[in-house]
Amino acid sequence: MAIPETILRELAQPYELTAEQIRFYDTHRFIKLKQVLSAAAIACFRDVIAAQVAKMNTTKTTLQERDTYGKAFLQLFNLWRENEDVQALVFSKRLGKIAADLMQVEGVRMYHDQALFKEGGGGITPWHADQYYWPLETDKTITAWIPLQETPLEMGPLEFSAGSHQIVEGRELAIGDESETLIQQRLRVTDFHHVIEAFDLGEISFHSGWVFHRAGANTTNDMRRVMTIIYMDRDMRLKAPENKNQQNDWDTWCPGAEIGEIINTPLNPVLYEPA
Fold it and tell me: What is the CATH number that goes with domain 5-270?
């Protein structure tokens, strides 16, 4: 389907952040922003992304047959390369400018996108920090978490430990049962506020690579459909991988990039910079 012109114009319009919102993100390393996308845009991309996920999904096992990570969500990557309509959202100047403004950088480029569809009855997403997986030199990374429907607590919206990017313990853990248990124990003895809130239609969150976050189980019968876009500073450089997951990410999402150099490959286009 072709994206309506009204929605394409919406995606090109800036969403102006306040100085207070930027300060909030800088302090807590996450923020939830209301009315970033209209109901019409959400409905349009829900249909487009759901159809693309159905086309790409190869999962054959039932929920009961999967481990904790597998029960958390169906996970499909780089939909922008497979579908021009999805690319319209992922390459949106509106979202890219928010990412750049929150990180206070001149521009942002693509790391990768991913659809995270938590099935009805799907399990928790364990506590973790995303940047454990990323061979990136600085912490100037941010993920837009875009629910494609209203997301009440029963559906398992994203939860944050506000300000937890300061914690070093747990950064070496892949997402799974161990990260859920150990990070939860660590956070329990800190003053970081655990934020658990529903998402309104059109509300989007942005979180940094080192802030700890999780999601609850989807106790409804409906699919929790979410699209994510991972941005990095336009001038991000590749670092030497510190674990096998970072090596895999280098090979998969930044092929051809060189250690110590700006990650400027065909898979990592600049998505926003001032005109």
Answer: 2.60.120.620
